Amino acid sequence: MNFPENVKYTKEHEWIRLEGDVAYVGITDYAQEQLGDIVFVDIQAEGETLAADEVFGTIEVVKTISDLFLPVGGEILEQNEALADQPELVNKDPYGEGWLIKMKPDADADFDSLLDAAAYKALIND
To answer: Oligomeric state and partners (predicted)?
Structure first.
């Protein structure tokens, strides 16, 4: 299982990676493994500004649909269009080509409240 050091994690199994003033958000390797084969990703919040922990979309596997929660508040700029035809990218490369959204975090976004790789690893190994 992969735990990149360059991202922050949530207890709901999302990750966020800041690149300048834009952040990429996706689900963790652990989450995609637990969910199984992803068949559909639905992001309805593009263009909206949401608070931390608000639902920004859903991810569908064969037997269930799971909500996706925003790690920090901000504006949803773009969804990963490649997932419309290839939702399995989330399974194959959750921290790379399988990213879900790009967002502009709020100026006061609290990245320090998120988990680092070691804390996230400890959380899922409990």
So the answer is: The glycine cleavage system is composed of four proteins: P, T, L and H.
The full set of domains in the chain, from first to last, is 6-107+115-122 (2.40.50.100)
Q: pLDDT of 7-50, one tens digit each?
A: 999 999 999 999 999 999 999 999 999 999 999 999 989 999 99
pLDDT in tens, 65-91: 999 999 999 999 999 999 999 999 999
Q: Which amino acid is at 39?
A: V
What is the residue-wise DSSP string for 28-94? -HHHHHHH-SEEEEEE--TT-EE-TT-EEEEEEESS-EEEEE-SS-EEEEEE-THHHH-TTHHHH-T
Look at residue 107 in the predicted model and tell me its pLDDT: 92
